[in-house]
């Protein structure tokens, strides 16, 4: 069997199952008695085991099997959840993730997991974590009320189909199909069963739903309602011929039985809808889920909604984006031609094309948008481990994980956030003893927040820790030669806080695995600025710190101000521009060998772009100068140009590896008239 065609799907689904394991294990640590969470972890592990065995990755299958055994002991109340037990399970999940990533990189998924397997085996046999002597066995109350496992329920549409079938002398069967416990290709067996059933008649209903069956999100048994004219014995015999099917039960049901059953189900829902929250037992052994029958969507509607999502290879989206970028360039060319010809029909066509391409642009950009949740998901687990390593109690709050960013930004933002969170945990949040001495709760809080504002996304990391110690930071900065003693005294608290972003800066007294090696936050600043973003720090000593990152929604199509310099055209990103102005030559002042202007009471240095880019031109003494005021954080500068052309949406193109180090140029674009315009990197011009 050639499994290469399924490799990409295996990798993606494995990552999803491992992420689900991480999230549910963190939940389990907070609610160790909640067996429902254990079942979720077990289901993900079981699915991963089957997938890896099918693909031939035995190391993954064996480790998952051992982890599954421990989870089975927990859900059968033979083991109890402790932090030590979860530590070992987390290590197993990490190693599984490492093997999956190795496979994604073209490897064989091999890893020495002997130590972890031995630890899991010891836990399973009770050697490491014995069952507590005070354990009280849960009382099992036999529920004689019929449940979904005993029969299927039908909506009005399905009942109508069954009724019409009965009128035409068809049989209605409810069929339970049981697969082998060690069945590796459950979805394939389900497909074969359904293929047989559809040849015999019409499948009216399944439990679990078709989506869950295809995703192997069930144990060994599933149920199907079939309308057919074949005898029940024939149906049973045909299904038993499917490989790895161990049991098939075919029950004939009448229309009267189904009507009576549906009536019973309605009564049961009405009774449970008045259950108060006090009916839920304190130890979470009974969970009551209340749903309004009027608002509950039918299984048919669920099926329609869930089938609208497909998985698309990101390379196809990149190709689509490149084609659209070419379309944007041609759109600009058509607009330029239209302006020259002044043809009313051409103008109307170009205007319509502009509207359509604008809508198309929004759709394509939205297709590339990914929730920051894909990055945030890794942090709860990381915070848990770091808190244990540092002997601190820390609660991580994640807000706005559904906020979306372009995939290219998502790919780059992960590492900077890791550095910032590690910094907050190590330098920010104090130890429980110090926090209690200061009158704070012993558990510190780190908030990871994301939200949209205009054409930007803001990501914030806030902690209620010690804040930034001004004297300690200045002392270290002076010793490193970053600032002088004289200038240090005049710096504001905000400027002092931003010193920690300097290269090689660290206030850690002891080098550790968490921080203190003099790298980290300067990398954060560099990465964020390379994405066209900025980072802002505000801190109050003794109360905490806030790191705020501003990022553009997308990097490929940006809005710019086109300006002229001699015969050349340059593009300045609108995200950096505060405003434009025209100033007199007499308004230009000299300060510290730098030409400046007074902009609303603030001294702003001027940058003459003709000098920066060596633009060839005749010497002229203009009375007026066109200035584009740009900002980088709290710093400003005025870019002096010859004239403004106007705003335009352009496609950002890389200069390539050969020209990657050109000063103050971040890329280029092709204009509507076919000329190339260079895009100015404002951050590089502001010091």
Features:
single chain; six-stranded mixed β-sheet; globular; 687 residues; alpha+beta; five-stranded mixed β-sheet
Topology of helices and strands:
Elements: H1 7-30, H2 35-55, H3 58-75, H4 83-104, H5 114-125, H6 156-167, E1 171-179, H7 186-200, E2 201-207, H8 210-214, E3 221-228, H9 232-240, E4 245-252, H10 255-272, H11 299-306, H12 314-341, H13 344-368, E5 369-371, H14 373-376, H15 379-390, E6 393-399, E7 404-406, H16 407-428, H17 432-437, E8 443-453, E9 456-463, H18 470-479, H19 485-489, H20 493-498, H21 521-530, E10 534-540, E11 544-552, E12 557-565, E13 568-573, E14 577-584, E15 589-591, E16 594-599, E17 602-608, H22 609-612, E18 624-632, E19 635-641, E20 643-651, E21 665-670, E22 676-680, H23 682-685
Parallel strand pairs: 6-8, 13-22, 17-19
Antiparallel strand pairs: 1-3, 1-4, 2-3, 5-7, 8-9, 9-11, 10-11, 12-13, 12-20, 14-18, 15-16, 16-17, 18-19, 21-22
Helix pairs in contact: 1-2, 1-4, 2-3, 3-4, 3-5, 4-5, 12-13, 15-16, 16-21
